[in-house]
Design a protein that fits this description.
Strand content: over 45%
CATH superfamily of the largest domain: Immunoglobulins
Oligomer: single chain
Number of helices: 0
Order of helices and strands: EEEEEEEEEEEEEEEEEEEEEEEE
Largest sheet: 5 strands, mixed
Number of domains: 3
Length: 297
């Protein structure tokens, strides 16, 4: 009696990848990592790549086909975006195939990301403008420093109702340098001034640099006196005309003594008045009578 023996040959695909880990070493933040993995089919049947996945949206794997015939090699390009990354990074790529012995292969790309030089910004946190008048324009120097290692770029300023920054934008401050711009204040109502301006910067995670502007705003005044309090140290009083029209002074008197009569201050002009110190009382007021111009309707 003869026996019949049947021999079945089952053919399987087998996957191998070279290398399984790419160590890029040191790379600067923002550079794109590009590495190639070679997928080799060492089996006897066609290797089918069913799925490729990554652990991060910053990592992508590119294949020009989804199969590898027996004995053939397929190149897979892997890219890793290092924007906004720093320090040690490790990205994984998963390749799922029809290999019955190793259906999922895990690959890695590791690197050390060196941060790019960054700009920094230093300014006063609060600018106190002191006493102002409604409608008055006050220019205050504002120093902007960059203690960082890259150019500080300020493309524009978000102004407030009463405050603005006068400069040539975009303003570039080199590393370790400073620039002086003009903080312009023009209050439109009396009371407490408490506003904020924002400098738009190129600093990552810090797009706005805030500066508070404070002060006390008084109602509009036609004439400014310097000094406000006369303490006998000086013998000159300054009268400053802030209007666009001439100011006519009827008289200026100390107690009952008239110091000047019928004077005129030109628009935006200043009048110096000599005060006889010996006539000043220990405490009192200097009286000033003004005649303001007006127009009838």
């Amino acid at each position: 009696m003869m026996g019949i023996f049947l021999i079945f040959f089952i053919f399987f695909p087998r996957i191998d990848v070279f290398p399984r880990v790419h160590d890029v070493g040191k790379i600067y933040e923002g550079e794109l990592i590009r590495e190639v993995f070679k997928i080799v089919n060492t089996g006897d049947d066609t290797l089918k790549i069913e799925k490729v996945g990554t652990t991060c949206y910053c990592t992508a794997a590119l294949l020009d086909r989804d199969y590898v015939i027996k004995g053939d090699t397929l190149k897979m390009l892997v890219t890793v975006d290092t924007k906004n990354r720093e320090g040690e990074i490790e990205e994984q790529i998963f390749v799922k195939t029809n290999d019955p012995y190793e259906p999922v292969v895990r690959l890695k790309v590791i690197a050390t990301v060196i941060p790019k030089p960054k700009p920094e910004i230093e300014t006063p946190e609060v600018v106190n403008a002191g006493f102002l008048y409604v409608g008055e324009t006050v220019n205050i120097p504002l120093t902007i420093k960059n203690p960082g290692l890259a150019d500080l770029i300020i493309p524009r300023v978000v102004s407030s109702l009463s405050c603005d920054v006068i400069a040539d934008f975009p303003l570039v401050v080199p590393p370790g340098k400073k620039k002086i711009v003009t903080l312009q204040i023009k209050p439109f109502k009396p009371g407490v001034l408490n506003e904020e301006i924002r400098l738009v910067t190129n600093i990552r995670y810090y797009p706005y640099h805030r500066i508070k502007v404070t002060g006390t705003v008084r109602k509009s005044s036609s004439v400014v006196f310097l000094p406000f309090v006369f303490d006998k140290i000086n013998d000159t009083l300054y009268l400053i005309n802030q209007t666009q029209n001439p100011l006519y002074i009827e008289n200026l008197s100390i107690t009952d003594d008239i110091v000047i009569n019928s004077s005129k201050i030109a628009p935006k002009g200043t009048l110096k008045v000599f005060i006889p110190i010996e006539k000043l009382p220990k405490k009192g007021e200097i009286k000033l009578n003004l005649r303001l111009p007006y127009e009838k309707e």
